[in-house]
Design a protein that fits this description.
Largest sheet: 5 strands, antiparallel
Distance between the termini: 5 Å
CATH superfamily: Nucleoplasmin core domain
CATH topology: Jelly Rolls
Number of helices: 0
Shape: elongated
Number of strands: 10
Helix content: under 10%
Strand content: over 45%
CATH architecture: Sandwich
Order of helices and strands: EEEEEEEEEE
Length: about 110
């Protein structure tokens, strides 16, 4: 068994729903947090979902989170299993930067 502390994802959100991170096979994940930063000069909304493998997606951010210019949002911890996904979108592409940090536990 191995625990690896790492940067799980570092992307700029598109305007369409996007898989930001997918837990690898034979791995459980503790996402310590993800941070969203609006780098534009206008207000942008972002939405995030946790898609548990074989289940229905549920919000992991406030629905239609509004971030003013320069604003930042930091999530709470999220526990994920194999093939679970974090999915996100923004109302405008190339405006919201997203960093996901956590620990992958490989069995």
């Amino acid at each position: 068994m191995t625990d690896t502390l790492k940067n799980l994802a570092n992307i700029v959100l598109p305007a369409t729903l996007h898989d930001v991170y997918t837990a690898p096979a034979l791995t459980s994940v503790m996402v310590s947090n993800f941070t969203l930063v609006n780098t534009s000069t206008s207000t942008i909304t972002a939405s995030g979902w946790l898609l548990v493998s074989g289940s229905t997606a549920m919000h992991c951010t406030p629905k239609n989170l509004s971030l003013t210019a320069g604003d930042m949002y930091t999530s709470d911890e999220i526990t994920m299993g194999t093939a679970d996904k974090i999915q996100m979108s923004a109302s405008s592409s190339l405006s919201i930067h997203c960093v996901v940090s956590g620990i992958e536990h490989t069995t």
